[in-house]
Design brief:
By secondary structure, the chain is an all-beta fold. The protein has one domain. Strands 1, 2, 3, 4, 5, 6, 7, 8, 9, 10, 11, 12 and 13 form a 13-stranded parallel β-sheet that branches.
Length: about 130
């Protein structure tokens, strides 16, 4: 996935209904962040913690998530378009009502997945394990 030049971001940037474009979160602890309705475009999250993060109704487009981990990630009613998640682990991925289009999970461990009522279009699941 090709991304434009990225500028470094900090946890406070992803707060509330943030509007992020071209931001790199590298090793950032985003645990407990509440970013309902946020827009995250052309961003990269690398080696980030997202424990109990809540991004309900958030929109992620053209993003790369590498070695991201979370005990629970709440993406209820979120939209992911052209997102790649490589490596990492999500204890719980709660994304009921979400819309996932052209999303790839590669080498990711998902322990609990809730995609009830979600729409999945061209979703690739090359997972380490998936227990639902």
């Amino acid at each position: 996935m090709l991304l434009p030049p990225l500028q470094a971001g900090k946890a406070a940037d992803l707060d509330g209904d943030a509007d992020l474009d071209g931001v790199l979160f590298d090793g950032t602890d985003l645990s407990g962040v509440y970013a309902d309705g946020a827009s995250v475009v052309d961003c990269k999250l690398s080696a980030c913690r997202l424990d109990e993060a809540r991004l309900r109704r958030a929109r992620m487009a053209s993003c790369l998530l590498e070695d991201v981990s979370a005990t629970a990630l709440d993406m209820v009613d979120a939209t992911w378009v052209d997102v790649v998640m490589r490596a990492g682990r999500l204890g719980a991925f709660v994304a009921h009502g979400a819309d996932l289009m052209r999303v790839a999970f590669v080498g990711v461990r998902l322990d609990y997945v809730n995609l009830r009522g979600s729409t999945l279009t061209q979703v690739v699941d090359e997972l380490q394990s998936w227990r639902a």
